[in-house]
Amino acid sequence: MKKIIPIQDGELIYFPHFIEVNVAQDWFDYLYNNTPWRKDQIKIFGKVHDVPRLQAWYGDEDAIYSYSNIDLKPLKWTEKLLSIKSLVERKSTVEFNSVLINLYRDGKDSNGWHSDDEKELGTNPEIASITLGQDRTFKLKHKVRDFTEKLNLENGSLLIMRGKMQHHWKHQIPKSKKKLKPRINLTFRKIIT
Fold first, then answer.
1. Would you say 4 and 13 are in contact if contact means Cβ atoms under 8 Å apart?
2. In the predicted model, what is the mean pLDDT of residues 3-24?
3. What are the distances in angstroms from CA 70 to CA 38, 73, 134, 157, 181?
4. Other residues' Cβ atoms within 10 Å of the Cβ of residue 56
5. Based on the structure, what is the number of domains in the chain?
6. pLDDT value of residue 70
7. Which of 51, 102, 122, 188 fits a 20 to 30 Å CA distance from 160?
8. What's the confidence (pLDDT) of residue 114?
9. What is the three-class DSSP state of 72?
10. How far apart are CA 151 and CA 42, in angstroms?
11. Helices vs. strands in the chain: H and E counts, helices first
């Protein structure tokens, strides 16, 4: 069932049961065990820090992506990722040429406040995000107005951000003091080359 989250200056669509739990577990196990996870570092205010999660970048050969001084050259699509991408494209009606896969190992792993507004994503990028494994809290805050939103991203769910979302909103997966199991997140994107 599709849920349109009422939000100003953007469009947020959530499918809490995009795939069944047994399919989500199959995808999780495959990705957890077969992905060549990267441990990257970023520079914030002159200090170098480990990215608080592991990641991997897959895509078409020319789908090169850079953020926070991290250059990601795409790994070649696997059959499993291409089949997942096809399902996401049918639901979103957008063709994607890349996916960033994040592994949140526990509650200490996170993703800070940011917008997916890099120039190679185009003017109004559409991001389609699948959650596998542990549910996590997804927070949003408007860049100018005093608006915030919070959503629990469930195992097997699909979240789509589109329209002017990345111009007007920041989002994050915050740290948690709770004991959490691993979560894998696939964010499908279209790199403009």
1. yes
2. 90
3. 11, 10, 26, 28, 27
4. 20
5. 1
6. 81
7. 51
8. 93
9. strand
10. 27
11. 3, 15
How many residues are present in the chain? 193
Provide, rounded to the nearest whole percent, the portion of the chain with pLDDT above 90. Answer: 79
| Contact (CB, 8 A) for 182 and 103 | yes
Q: How far apart, in Å, are the Cα atoms of 191 and each of 70, 99, 166? A: 15, 10, 15
Q: Which tokens in the block code for residue 23?
A: 């399919």
> Strand pairing of 11-15 and 169-173?
unpaired
Angle 74-75-79 from CA coordinates, rounded to 5°? 125
Domain of 138 in residue numbering reads as 3-189
If one compares 141 and 71, the residue with the highest pLDDT of the two is 141
| Tokens encoding 116 | 């997916």
Q: What's the pLDDT tens digit per position in 150-186?
A: 999 999 999 999 999 999 999 999 999 999 999 999 9
β-partners of residue 44 are 47
What's the average model confidence in pLDDT over 16-27? Answer: 97
Q: How far is CA 11 from the centre of its chain?
A: 16
Sign, Cα dihedral of 3, 5, 10, 14: negative
Residues 70, 56: contact at Cβ < 8 Å?
no
CATH of the domain at 123: 2.60.120.590
For 67-94, b/e burial (b = at least 16 CB within 10 A) is beeeebebbebeeebeebbeebeeebeb
Residues 12, 4 contacting (CB under 8 angstroms): yes
